[in-house]
Amino acid sequence: MYTFSNRLKIASIILMVVGALGIGFGFISAPTTVEEAKAMVASHDNDHGDAHAVETSHAVEDGHDAAHDEHVLHQLQNKPWAALYVAAFFFFMIALGVLAFYAVQRASQAGWAPLLFRVMEGITAYLVPGGIIVFVILVLSVMHMNHLFVWMDADVVAHDKLLQGKSGFLNPTFFLVRAAIFLGGWILYREYSRKLSLKQDQADDNSNFKMNFRISAAFLVFYLISESMMSWDWIMSVDPHWFSTLFGWYVFSSMIVSGITVIAMVAVYLKSKDYLPDVNDSHIHDLAKYMFGFSIFWAYLWFSQFMLIWYANIPEEVTYFVTRLEDYKLPFLGMFAMNFVLPLLLLMNSDYKRINWFVIMTGIIILAGHYLDIFVMIMPSTVGDQWSIGIPEIGAILFFAGLFIFWVFRALTKASLQPKRNPFIEESKHFHY
Amino acid sequence: MDMASKVIHAYYNDDDVLMHAVKKVKDAKHHIEEVYCPFPVHGLDKAMGLGSTRIAITSFIYGCIGLIVSIVMMDYIMIQDWPQDIGGKPSFSYLENMPAFVPIMFEMTVFFAAHLMVITFYLRSRLWPFKEAENPDVRTTDDHFVMELAVHDNENELKNLLMDTGAVEISVSEK
User: Fold this and answer.
1) Does residue A43 lie in a domain region?
2) How many angstroms away from the CA of A386 is the closest CA of chain B?
């Protein structure tokens, strides 16, 4: 049995407290009036010389000027919300990615993986708090506490033919109903599969194992559809005019690579504390291979989405990338290096995939890169060129990292880290590359 | 080297038995000249004590060469030699047209890495067209494995050892 060390527990609580302070600071310092917003933008411009001066100076007409100021106010008011939402979704997505990977191992009856099942089950425990937090943020958006989703504003829809056409699908009620169904389905599978997994330890036949195989295969069908629709709802709809047909896959690739990276990190951590004695370097090697492969998969989808839109150059599509290249150049191109070029070069050598600390270091790059990926998906249409990675953003990351660590490692203490009666456990122990 | 070197051939008909035999022979401190197999046996190279392959390094180098070739090639074809206007994108700047060339860069990288690696492998394994087969027995292309050891005045000792390892047939020949 694993015991949650006090040092790690205290560290996670400190992360949560410091993070909550950062989030609170973000909300308190957001402007409430147009004047405050203007003052903030002006002081920001003074700080950074005349980088933004060109942009602010070309609002010449008075009417246009006022509308622009109002817009900036909304962007600055959105900022703490967007920071919260990006971090909340990012950590939730890790748990969901692990759940999908776990279901694949179950459905394919993989022989190498059973030794890591309890680690994966521990990580997916975060689906419950993480999912509830994301759901609450979505409900608050529907209640007009923020302007993250512009299509939720009845005024905007009234003046927008395209949004009226989409309102049969993209309306607040159906949006929340869908979110509830997705979260309900994912959590239901997670809890049921975990129960069967624990029951298998005490059983004297393989019926629980077989049942787990069946529900995992069924879950994957549900997951494939619900994950894709979730990505349209929770991410793509912040840009309600724009759409991409492979967006679901793109978000999936980010999710699965982050999830596998966290499995590897938690496994290496537990190994370093002398838990998981039967997990050998070949298991870590396999996880690192998945990190390597899915990083390339991510880049493939990223580029496929980019190139078609760039080539066709249709105004309503290409605006998505124009905004990102103009206002988000560093995170947009930086994440490509962090999510593709570095994992490709660092994890290419077979031997490096077996060096535990090396896998951890590469994993940190991958996780930071995929946080930026989500950041660049959400921020451009919620805060525009007012983005920064400051106290509210880092605070939100720290808070959710703390909550994630606390919840995951607490869940790991609940059951033996090694499944006892999984029919493939011997194969997993002897797994050798 | 001996003038006329004698070799002993031990035949096996199962890859698991072969693997155990190789380990046993290595434990008895004998040098295994070669093992002929009808299919690749996982882990055999390590058991025989062969050095690790460097083919992956050559493949990486070939891939880099392919990438560079594709960059230079597309620059020559699409930018320098005959700039074309495709889909309203005038080709006068390499950087602005680079995304269109990425699939070609990818393909050329894979093409170079794969083909040159295979050719390297053939050369390193001394395989070329019309090459005489080196395997001592035609059955090694079907269902038998043959382990080859050099004999240094220890023929009987080797025979006994090999019989113990589960060999189905043993023969001694001049090489």
Assistant:
1) no
2) 27
The number of domains in chain A is 1
Model pLDDT for residues A316-337, shown as the tens digit of each residue: 899 999 999 999 999 999 999 9
Looking at the structure, tell me whether residues B21 and B65 fall in a common domain: no
Q: Chain B residue with minimal CA distance to A305?
A: B99
For residue B98, what is the nearest residue in chain A, using CA coordinates? A307
The ipTM value here is 0.80
The pTM assigned to this predicted structure is: 0.89
The C-alpha angle A164, A166, A172, rounded to 5 degrees, equals 90
- Classify A276 in phi/psi space as left (phi over 0), alpha (psi -120 to 50) or beta: left
Among A364-368, A416-420, B29-33, B96-100, top mean pLDDT goes to: A364-368
Confirm whether B70 is domain-assigned: yes
Residue B91 sits in which domain range? 55-124
Contact (Cβ atoms closer than 8 angstroms) between residue B25 and residue B32: yes
- Cβ-based contacts of B102 with chain A (< 8 Å): 303, 307
Is B67 in the same domain as B111?
yes
Domain span at residue A392 reads 6-37+70-426
The answer as to whether B46 is a domain residue is: no
In the sheet that holds B145-151, the strands lie side by side as: B32-36, B145-151, B6-12, B169-174
Q: How far is A217 from chain B (nearest CA, A)?
A: 31
